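Wed. Picked up where I left off yesterday with MalT-like TPR region domain-containing protein. The coffee machine is broken again, so keeping this brief.
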Amino acid sequence: MNIKRLENRIDEAINIREKGNLEKSRLLFESIIKDINKLLQKDSSKELKNIYATAMGEYVIQHRLEGGALYRKALKLGEDLLKYDRENKLNNPLSIRAVSNTLLNLGAFEKAEEYLRQLLPLYEGNSAQIGDTKAHISYCYFRTGRVNGANKLVDEAIEDIKENSAKKKYFSVWLSHALLVKSLILNSEKKVKEALEYAKESLKVAEKGRIKVRSNQSKDVIDYLQKELRGNN
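Structure written out below (tokens, as returned):
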């Protein structure tokens, strides 16, 4: 089984997960990780270890999306993966994201920010992924009361993502998230109409990219903001 085949299987599982079929994607990730572990018994190359780190990082995202009690399991998996990454000097960004984004789900925003900042040097020269990371840091700012900084940073994030020097296949995931963060920040500043426009744009991007999870998040924000507007009239 070659590396390219493993990468294609991971991409397939990601696509199925983003379309909302979490049960099927979980089984696919578990199958991929099982196969990689078998291969690692015979091949200890850094390339294969990096594929393992990527698969495990995506598997942590799987746990986060399923939510509930799985958040704690996701954090433990993420911490173990980051330890594995550092022991093998892989510098795989997903190893850090496995921890940072789970901490976001758990509400540990200041701790998550520390890990997110470690990602920026790893994405040097990759504007879209730098932008995506900035959007997550902006959300940390927002949730810890640093609204002005959050607003400025998320604008930078959107601009960086639209420049898009990274892989285009994740463009919709990154941009729809950044737009949604911008919407939340604007709403906190009582700019509800502007917030609604950004939420609608997030939904448009998510639906174009067929990202069911983000589409549902955007719809929830739109519904909330529309109720806010009706209440203010």
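Quick read: The mean pLDDT is 94.
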